[in-house]
Amino acid sequence: MAPFHALRLSTIVNTVCIAGVGYAVPVNVRPNSEILKAFPHRTEDEMVRLTGIKERRHAAEGDTATDLAALAVRDALAQAGMHVNQIDGIIMATILPDQPVPSAASSLARELGIPRALAFDLNAACSGWLYALEVGRCFIRCGTAKNVIVVTAELLSRITNPECHDTAFLFGDGAGAAILTGGSGGHRLHPMGLSGDADQYEAIQRPGGGAQMPWPGAEGADLQNFYLQMDGATVFKHAVVGFAEQIEQTLKRENLKPGDIAWVVPHQANERILKAVSKRVGIPYGKFVVTISQYGNTSAASVSMALGWAAQEGIFSDGDKIIFCSVGAGLTFAGGLLVW
Question: Is the pTM value of this prediction over 0.85?
Answer without folding.
Answer: yes
